[in-house]
Fold this protein.
Amino acid sequence: MARIVALDTSDVRFPTSLSLDGSDAMNPDPDYSAAYVRICTDAAGGPDGHGFVFTIGRGNEVQVAAIRALAPYLEDRDLDEVLDDLGGFWRELVHDSQLRAHTTTPGRLGYDDAKLARLCREAVTDGFTQIKLKVGANLTEDIRRLGIARDVCGPGIRIAVDANQRCEVAEAAEWVTALQPFDVAWVEEPTNPDDVLGHAAIARGVAPIPVATGEHMANRVMFKQFLQAGALQILQLDATRVAGVNENIAILLLAARYGVPVCPHAGGVGLCETVQHLAMFDYLAVSGSAEGRMIEFVDHLHEHVVTPVEVTGGRYRAPKAPGAGAQLLDASIVEYTHG
């Protein structure tokens, strides 16, 4: 009978700011990082558990400290008892009165025109039917860059735009309207991600262009309010932002109740690997449809994951290995641990 003996954490930071991978209007020079956790048991050869919270560099140590604070809830517990009632264990954490949990590749703002065009061509060649460009820093530049992307991709490829919270509510509709000639597939996170009524106003102002948001929402209640207000037409849950799989399943059920497609947020280290399971669960057990649904994909840092995603012809392939896909390579943890 195995017992949980330790909760090991690592502050892992990849220097993506050097190549401007991940750059956008809000975050010009992020270092994609993971507050990484390994749950260790006393069983010979495992099993061990692996997980992470995604951040963009400075402050990652705060997330690590928060994870370490959970050690008393896990250490010296019987593993079978935890696994036999994962729902009960989840409730123990999120209901504690003193502990409340709560392909974008071509379009980075830091990329020059040549790299933008090259990555657009590669995306089309690789079979992707939609790409996403970061916008929101300068409207004139956004129009110029969208023109490059549309010229390279042609009329048959959908192009979404992501403002990363940079617009005020009043200016968002005007900004998106200026981009409308490029046949925008959706506008993502146009303003503060907590502003339910602001997103609703923007959605009315830019219709029929859908508003996509959700990667920064911390719980199912926020998603419920956005859905009730008609503030999003594309729901973008995140594998690590809310309180685990149970919370994300509740969000998938809410989306199905309101008839809103789920296109999960991914892109940071390990996010593609973890979020694919939620999207596939949605297709198999909740929505039963792939229409209007896709999983975000960014082609970097997969070499640091034990079971990297497999994407062929612009589509994710179901993983064959067990687990959530969150395990990083030991060598990568050692090399990129901060401090």
Summary: The first helix runs from residue 60 to 68. The radius of gyration is 20 Å.
